[in-house]
Amino acid sequence: MAKTNEPTIIKKYANRRLYNTGTSTYVTLEDLAVMVKGEEDFVVYDAKTGEDITRSVLTQIIFEQEGKGQNLLPVTFLRQLIRFYGDSMQGLVPSFLEYSMTSLTKEQEKLRSQMSEAFGATAFEAIEDQVKRNTEMFERAMKMFMPFPAAGGDTAASSNPASTAKPAKSGGSDLDEMKRQLEDMQKKINQLSEKS
């Protein structure tokens, strides 16, 4: 539907059905969500009382989207928002949120390009490099805690205790398992970096 200067009027009937007066058809909340995404303005009126119920219908759309697992609103944010009801700051919250969302909307393309630059194809390389460094540091730290070789061992064995020393039974299997998990993680990271 083409965008107009006047908002489309939606009527909500007692049976909870929504009627789009612009297209003369019944619509769903999903249809209204599509209209919002298409930047088509509308106002929802209760068909019986004539009361403007746009806010509650938009809230229903958000509730349905959140229920589908498309979570935009963090739990912390929702709790903070609820705390503002009845608070002396309640009057400032709507204008602050509106300003914040307007700024985000204006800057979204710039933000998208910055995010792709920051986390684009090179992101996997940076993550892989960091994981390698962390793995090396972890292995060095674990070698420090490995038991020393038995007395009389040669100097080559002494310089690399992990190659000849037999760790304690309980710690050895844990260390081997950790090494195996690190190798698995490294393989997965390599596979991800090859795909990008």
Key terms:
62% helix, four-stranded mixed sheet, single chain, alpha+beta, 196 residues, elongated
Annotate the secondary structure layout.
Elements: E1 8-12, E2 18-20, E3 25-27, H1 29-37, E4 42-46, H2 54-67, H3 75-84, H4 92-119, H5 121-145, H6 155-159, H7 161-164, H8 169-195
Parallel strand pairs: 1-4
Antiparallel strand pairs: 1-2, 2-3
Helix pairs in contact: 1-2, 4-5, 5-8
Task: Describe this structure as you would to a colleague.
With 196 residues, the chain is α+β, with helices and mostly antiparallel strands. The longest helix has 28 residues, at 92-119. α5 (121-145) runs antiparallel to α8. The chain contains 8 helices and 4 strands. The chain has a 4-stranded mixed β-sheet with strand order 3-2-1-4.
